[in-house]
Amino acid sequence: PSSNAIGLHFYPIWEAASLDEWLYNGGPYQLVIFHFLTGVFCYLGREWELSYRLGMRPWICLAFSAPVAAATAVFLIYPIGQGSFSDGMPLGISGTFNFMIVFQAEHNILMHPF
């Protein structure tokens, strides 16, 4: 099976028949992305909690939520919309630039700027 075979299913290590199958089908990508997003969401919650307990206005949490929304969009929302986590942004520099090129090519972004 290709790495696209996993689709949108949650794929923990214990669900695979072997470690090789889990590695081949994109298990590490889901593991890293879910842990990253969980950590970032918890960090934002902690920022809000500290500002609340210290009697400050929670604008810093609001300011830092924009990059969190962007990361959530490219790592979680876009793959769900496309139907597979293999369509999510890769975790490397060259993969990121490839994602940007493929994204604009598949969705015709440059031809319709408005």
UniProtKB/TrEMBL annotation:
TM segment ranges: 28-46, 58-81
Principal location class: membrane
Top-level lineage group: Bacteria
GO cellular component, one term: photosystem II
Alphabetical keyword list: Chlorophyll, Chromophore, Magnesium, Membrane, Metal-binding, Oxidoreductase, Photosynthesis, Transmembrane, Transmembrane helix
One term of GO molecular function: chlorophyll binding
Name under which the protein is recorded: PsbA
Species name: Scytonema bohnerii Ind25
